[in-house]
């Protein structure tokens, strides 16, 4: 009997250990598992031109489609993804999904359509980013698009040789660099001096206070002025009301983005609604 019992007990013990490990699985393990199950999906938000409000591009925003919890927003998992380094393969998967879905639709996109991806500071040390960008651009040969990398300022990019050669490689390919959430960090002006920035995205906290807060209006006025002097393109983020549109229109800002024009939606809905 022990010949039968022994392996059974062994199996049972192994099963219990497995259960325990699962219970105490670190969130990083959960992120990795979710990545393998392809639960991270792109949502796309339209970006329109500042004059006629026609669609000119989109920003890709990551969502975690959780089988139990539903759609989880980025603030609940991006910080951990960045700390753990998982953000690099997760971002690559985002670029692949968008490329596979939209590459075959290239001909239907407005000319020079912009695709914006959020890239964290630590990702700018990884030279594979250049290959990923190349693969993305190549998928749209039928009707070339503009690839925009949006850099957020949660941490400062170190100015190393690797980073500089990476930036140079990206520039040579025509990739545009946008500074996201401009005006919120302490490092924004430092970035403008160190790296070639093509696009400034004025943070939604300033846009949101236009009309109710004179100071926010002055800040927006001055950021626009600065960007024009530095010959940078401007995106006003978080445009929600007609009053904000009316305030911004005389400035002839290149691009506007916000719920007023459209919320982020899944890729299929984006195609249906915007293309
Ligand atoms: P972000 O890059 O500044 O993206 C804009 C955020 O503002 C998005 O939130 C968008 O849904 C939201 N938004 C757009 N228009 C409006 C508006 O009119 N009103 C309001 N209240 N909100 C608006 P979301 O999708 O929750 O993303 C939050 C942040 O998470 C992003 O801010 C970005 O920093 C980060 N994130 C999202 N996807 C990725 C990603 O793939 N990689 C990385 N590294 N970060 C990401
Ligand atoms: Mg962004
Ligand atoms: Mg932003
Ligand atoms: Mg943000």
TrEMBL record:
The keyword Transmembrane applies. The chain crosses the membrane at residues 1-18. It catalyses: 3',3'-c-di-GMP + H2O = 5'-phosphoguanylyl(3'->5')guanosine + H(+). It is found in: Cell membrane. Keywords: c-di-GMP, Cell membrane, Hydrolase, Membrane, Transmembrane, Transmembrane helix. Its EC number is 3.1.4.52. Residues 24-275 form the EAL domain. It is a multi-pass membrane protein. It comes from the Bacteria. This is cyclic-guanylate-specific phosphodiesterase.
